[in-house]
Every structure is written in structure tokens, then in C-alpha cells.
């Protein structure tokens, strides 16, 4: 019975959307229900847990009630509101947001330490040059589970990071196994998501540290359309770690291990949930990259609300 009702609701909603209608009658109760089109028109999650909210229930306070998964590419705006990328990008956001008209640097965001350090580098550029592009994050995830590939985290975790950092996030669901069926479907999904912002994008930014082959693939894939930047490439590890430790000491972030390669799990400090700090790095088995750059492990950065207000210099010092 429940399955039939769910199908009836989905059919009624699809028919209403196909007809361009803002609401439909619930098959069971007859009550009026807003369609996804109405929510997109409004431009943000109202916080009431609406049935067809396309914004991942971003503003629903109770995590248990955040039931809607990523069904389509959606632009989540810096904690204040949200907007689907399928709607107009000239909405209420000012030039300082992705919905404004200013130039953008798009940062490919995994939620880990390398992404975070890259964001800080771009924010330092903004501090030093008022004319520097605003930063918009982009994250791909599985359309069913919401899992962010490799990181073993969920798009909701990334959404919370973006909200705390007050940075716009473009969430891109990969449907039908696109995340695991090769680069083609992944690239197609990313390029489609970026298309509404094409004229404003100044560069695609990546957190790669030293892997030449990965950098070469990104450049070969994207540079015909967008310039690519690698702000941290070949930065000494000592400098990168110093920046992380400085942030952690200020209490703006906490970095933990979110995934470990199977053959390394439980070797030395390599376990899920381990704190990524100087002690962790010092205890790594021989041959394991200190930053996990070869895929040995991945991290998640928990972000405190104070992180959004911290203005950080290139050397990691606060100003």
C-alpha cells in the first residue's frame, strides 16, 4: 500500500511539473502540495521539510527530518538561502554570491583538508585584491545515497561545511552509477552544472598537491572551456601542515580521517575517525604519503562557525 501511494504521489507530482503547475492535490488526502517548481521559484529551503524541496532540506533544523536527497544540480547559498541552478542565476544574491553577476573561481570541493587549504589560499587572494573573483564550491555525489566519492562522507556534511564557511555550494548528483562508470559521464554532469555560470567563471580550481598525471588529466579535460588553477601545487608539505595546525589551534577546524585504503586500514594510526594532526603524521607507516596524496587515506574537515570570519594569510596566520 505504501509503495503504491508513493508511486501515485510521484506520478501526480511529475504530471504537475510537466504541466508547469505550482501545486497538485495529494492522492491520499486531497490537500494541496507545492511542486518542485514552486520551491525553485521561491529560491531557497523554507525550513518546513516540504515534500518536494530540491534544496536537500538545507534549513530544516532537525537533522532527522532532512529527508530529501540530491535529485538535481542545486545551488546552495552561503547559509542564508538557496537556489536551484535550473532557475535564473540573477536572483536576490548580490555580486558577492554565485547568484550575483560577479566573476567566479570554482573550487572542486571534497570536504577534505586539501580542499580546505585551497579555499584558504583563494580567500587570501580576495583579502589582498578586492577585485579577485568570489569562490563557489562544486561537489559531486551519488544521487541515491548522497555519498561523496572517495571521502566516505555525505553531501549533507559538505552542505554543513559550506554553510559554516558562508561559501556558495553547487551540489551535483551523479545518477545511474555515473561516479563509477568512467570519466565521461562525470565530466558531462560537471560541465552541465557549470553551464549557467560559464560567462562568469574565471578558473576551475583544484586542491592537487603534486601528482602530475592528475593535474594533466584535469587540464586536458577542462582547459578547452575553462582555465585551470592549482593554488597549492608543489607547496612544501611543512608549510601546508603548519597552516592546518594553526587553524586547528585557533579552534576553527578539526580534521579527521574519513576513509582509508583497505590494505592500510588499522596500520599505525590509519583508522576511520583518527585525528589528523602532527602525532598522526609522525606515526604513519613508511611509504605512506603524509597528506594521503596517493589515495592512502582521505579526510573530513569539521568547520566551526568562527571559520567564516577568520581572515587567513598565505602562511596560515590569522588577521
From TrEMBL:
Region (Disordered) residue spans: 64-98
Gene3D superfamilies (alphabetical): HUPs (3.40.50.620)
Pfam families: DUF5522
Segments of skewed composition (Low complexity): 77-90
SUPFAM superfamilies linked to this entry: Adenine nucleotide alpha hydrolases-like
Name of the protein in question: Diphthine--ammonia ligase
Organism: Tribonema minus
Lineage of source species: Eukaryota, Sar, Stramenopiles, Ochrophyta, PX clade
